Amino acid sequence: MKLISKPFYAVRRHQIKNKLPDNASAEDVLDVIFGDLYNDSKYDVIYRKYCDKTPLQRFNMIWVLALTLLISPIQFIKNGGVGWTHNTRTGRFFLKITGEYRGE
């Protein structure tokens, strides 16, 4: 099996505007970015999320992940799933120290 990779193109807003007429609809913009039914586009849409975690939260992620892997069989048998939720005190603690708690 051979993987085909496309070259990465960074596209700016003005480059897309130059390819469109002045009265372009939303469908025209999407056709330029993603391609239409018959023609594939040369662009890939990449969503980049800013990482706002501190180094301590990233370090805590290591040992919390190891602990989760150790007790995951017990969690699965007891709860039917694996992971931490904000519904328990322990879950809120682990989510807060790893930067995943959103105050739900």
- First-to-last CA distance: 45 Å
The H/E string reads HHHH
Number of separate helices: 4
Q: What is the radius of gyration computed over CA atoms, rounded to a whole number of angstroms?
A: 22 Å
Can you tell me the residue ranges where pLDDT is under 50 for at least 5 consecutive residues? none
Provide mean pLDDT, rounded: 80
Helix amount: 40-55%
Q: How many domain units?
A: 2
Estimated structural class: mainly alpha
Question: Sheet with the most strands?
Answer: none
Q: Using DSSP, what is the number of strands? A: 0
DSSP strand (E) fraction?
under 5%
Give the overall shape, derived from the CA principal axes: elongated
Topology:
Layout: H1 13-19, H2 26-34, H3 55-79, H4 89-97
Please characterize this protein's 3D structure.
With 104 residues, this protein is an all-alpha fold. It folds into 2 domains: 8-48, no CATH class; 55-97, no CATH class. It contains 4 helices and no strands. The longest helix is centred in the middle third of the chain and has 25 residues, at 55-79. It is elongated and about 60 Å long. 3% of the residues are buried.
Features:
single chain; 104 residues; mainly alpha; 2 domains; 4 helices
Please outline what is shown here.
The protein is an all-alpha fold and 104 residues long. It is built from 4 helices and no strands.
